[in-house]
Write a structure and sequence with these properties.
By secondary structure, this protein is α+β, with helices and mostly antiparallel strands. It is 38% helix and 23% strand. Strands 1-2-6-3-7-17 form a six-stranded mixed β-sheet. Strands 4-5-19-18 form a four-stranded antiparallel β-sheet, covered by helices on one side. Strands 11-13-9-14 form a four-stranded antiparallel β-sheet.
Length: 426
Amino acid sequence: MTTKNLIAFLLICLAGNANGATIDFDEEIKSLAARPEISEALRIIEILDSQSDAELIELTEIPAPPFKEDARARRYAEKLIDAGMQDTRIDKVGNVISRWPGRSGDKTIAIVAHLDTVFPEGTDVTVRRENGKLYAPGIGDDTRGLILLLTMIRAMRSADVETVHDLLFVATVGEEGLGDLRGVKHLFRQGGPRIDELIAIDGGSFKRVLNHAIGSHRYRVTFSGAGGHSWSAFGLANPAHALARAIHFFDDNASTFVATGPRTTYNIGRVGGGTSVNAIPFESWAEIDMRSEDPDRLRQIDAILQNAVQLALVEQNRLLTRGEPLSVEVKSIGNRPSGRIEPQTPLIQRALAATRFFGVTPELAAGSTDANVPIARGIPATTIGRGGQGGGAHSLNEWWSNTDGYRGVQKALLIALASAGVTDRR
């Protein structure tokens, strides 16, 4: 164990509650799991989750491409209502929101999974079963997360669990790609529902507990000009040449920048434009993604991109011998905030303790998920795995298997109930 990790561990052990009393989070989770109604809920989860494949297949085969999650949202809302969650609605951006009322309602813990997938409209999402695995685009990321929420709710209701504080179960839209976290951003808008802590269900690892949100800036850079015939209009400023210069300048400077300091990455993901091999394009564009664990580093690499674009514009316009100069538009198509939740925060400690409860050594981690938004605002949030085993995320060969998948549901239940509190009926 490194010195840094040892310090973090000691902080976790010594962390206290609002009244200054020391909390043993491992004992808290063990005591919670031993309560008769929670023990019963954990038992029911194991039964229900082992029978959940049919429902997972059903939801997976309802396409939820970017910005078109409506059909899946409607069906999911029906399932929540059938599970006894009468206070269920679809908000104006498409999130499915379902409230489990606590006895006091003084605090709200949100548990979220996302409806959308990365796959475009028309993708074949038919599920096939092969060697104990279920294959289909989006079956793990994050349709399985939706099933986890449903299984939690059904087990809590069957075991007659009562909480002190409210739980808010949310199926969000727009978590992936150009969705830019629009669902969770809407939740945290001014005037949105009260959320004091958030637990996102995403990713496949059981041991990872996210406390560090990786921020990202995304842009579509478009160079525009008159366009014309490659022979007769030669001499016009060429948008494709300008774009190539911009990419070269950016890559040259950004590669040096990311070589040191907090981890920062960049990627030219898509390039397009032009009409023919023998036509000067009237526009050429590229989509660019930059990420960093550190907000300042993200702003700095953003500045490197902006400077590269403007330098390319100036140099390309200097070469024209006829016609009007090029113009350029740098349009933001994504802005995910970054931030960090300290390891000693009770929600993070409960997630670590719940992981150890199952005999697994937890790891603090960084990622880009729905938890980014609350973390950036200083609101306790984490992301934990969906349970089971899987692979091939964001590919047509994505797969998931229900190998001890119930443990992921049980872990989520224990974390959520430790934060929300369970009523004492004695």
